[in-house]
Model the fold of this input.
Amino acid sequence: MGKFRYRIQYRKLVPFHLLSHLDIYRMWERAFRRARIPVLYSQGFNPRPLFSFPFATPLGIESKAEYFEVFCGEPIPPWELKERLSSEVPEELGIESVCALASFDLPLQKVIRGIVYTFFFQESFPLELPSLPEGITVLESREEIPSVISFLFEGKQMLWSPLKLVSFLVTECCWPFPKRILKERIVV
Amino acid sequence: MDVEQRLFSDLTLLSVERPGRYLGREWNSVVKPDREIRYTVALAFPDIYEVGMSHLGLRILYGLLNAIPGVQAERVFLPWPDMGRKLKELGIPLFSLERKKPVSSFDLLGVSLQHELSYTSVLYLLDLSGIPLRQDERDERFPIVLGGGPCTMNPEPLVPFFDAFFIGEAEEVLGDIVRFLMEMKGRKRETVLSELSRFPGVYVPSVSQQVPIQRQIVWDLERAFFPRQTLVPYVSIVHDRVAVEIARGCTRGCRFCQAGMIYRPKRERSPEQVIEIALKLLETSGYEEISLLSLSSTDYSCIEELVEKLSCLLEPYRVNVSLPSLRMDTFSVNLAKSLKRVRKSTLTFAPEAGTERLRNVINKGLRDEEILAAAESAFSSSWQEIKLYFMIGLPLEREEDIRGIALTVREILAVGKSFRKDAKVHLSIAAFIPKPHTPFQWVPQERKENLQAKMNFLKDLLRPLGSSVRYHWSSFEMSQIEALLARGDRKLSRVIERVYKKGGILENWQEHFAFKRWEEALGEEGIDFASYLYRERSFDEVFPWEHISCGVSKAFLREEYERACRGILGPPCLPGGRCTQCGVCKDGKVSIPNTIS
Done:
């Protein structure tokens, strides 16, 4: 049997940011079954679909850049995969793109260089930039006195939860707690 | 700002445990456009999401009511205390999952009464919703509060809090009731309740009615409503699988078992329909497991053929079939083989008592060799562990019966170890609780000190078996209160209210239960706990639940109790064959299909 590999990019927007990584995994497993897509399963006493999620986005974080890879038993055009899956999930968890991968394509974990998170605060406040932990830089702030700030997480810090940065900013630098956090994009 | 904006659009709920359970928006949830809604029903389950969503009855009613044009039915569960505090702090009343509407704004509030220890949670539900607790304090601004479920077989302790109770199976009558209420919308509350009391199976305490109220029975399961799509939760729930009811009622008549009495007669759904429903539910849900539900699955006429056929059909999709607790005298290697095609789910058996003698007293009627044969079928089919349910504190129990539990477990393990060295038994011990409408409704509840002593004795006996046996037991303090409320009367409503005011909520969770609150409340009301629990009732006593009839006659229950005292089995219930004369089947209108094509 053939093995056909796809990378799927999807959203995780309000209110589904309140779901955990495991909830999302289960949702995709069931969506694939509803869409009757012949996904390949692991062997063993508890067969699970061959999904691979490179990162677990923590509960609470909205995202426009969620990814996973999946192995199918038959070739399916990426546009068709996108269409069939999209009708099985809510709009806010919808698919951004699907691309077919070759066997030599490296998994996302190997090519990713950084993740951009945007923090939204209740109000603007005078920005006093603290010295951030290594690997995290302020990418942009759109206003002079900003209420929206983006951070780039690189290297080992990619494994950091943005909530860890929040607790650093709140305790070390007296920043207010953000209202929302959005995983904006990944950098490859 | 609406609830959606205030709670679900930012990091506000990051501080509560598992916020996903308050989210709604599940696949197959029903939200009709506002202009199509004429009558709203809140289907409330007085426990948290994970428990309430695991209840099949709620899903059936959700489908049944939402299929009626003009009716919007929505689910309501209780928040975990952290979320309960958050709602109070933010001044947000309890809301439904579908449209996040306040519970108090619904036309009808249906409350599922599955368990006695949820009674204080019912008050929590009303309170969080801003609905006055007592029926006589509510006017037209508030929904009609209707109770349903097995606890309505003795609704007395809850009477002051409810407008009405529906007794029995809802599929045939509830649709008509709701359609009628939709027409009566806007009328005076007394008028509505008085009209409502004319429906069969509806008990309205504030209206004088002809008693007893008869439990409603769906005679033909095949033609009863069963949903063809089911809600798919995001957070994992207790029973996270598709459930299809293959039969209702049980022919065995175990004397401790209330379900075995109040769901008579046994009716089956045809295997063809079970398969049709199963495939449709799986297609529309994408679930990875399906459970075939009934009180005693292996008593289904062609269970082996059904499980094998369904397992084969579902194997390519990696969907497995599971069964709830099984009888050991009908479990076979064939069934074990079918059940493990995709993935092995837990195998649970309920011998209930440790010796044949006591199993005859309770009318379980299971022989030692049948128990060992079932264990052999399971372990030889490569299960590593089986789960066993036993009860302690049963009527006429002796020391040898407790020894019998340990002995049975030891023998089962010996069988298991002959197949694999790591064979294990998971033992679950519960206290027997006398329930209304059963042959044991006359017997005293065992004191908690004695239950504890019996449990300690059993633990000593299990110790030599080491880590091959895992065991847990129910809280004996909780079972005392469950027993108190099960055979309780209207006076206990004041105790329930006091316990709630002392902070008693979600009390069927051991971590939230406090015996002390009940002791205090009983003392304050001057009620003697012992007279409800430890008293042997006489045969001429009139019980508080006699205005509710489940169809089984008191004379039959008494005969069964007398047979129990003599240690003899009752005749099995065989519709169309030998009849036990329990009183339920008046003209034998029961459908039992028994072939598979």
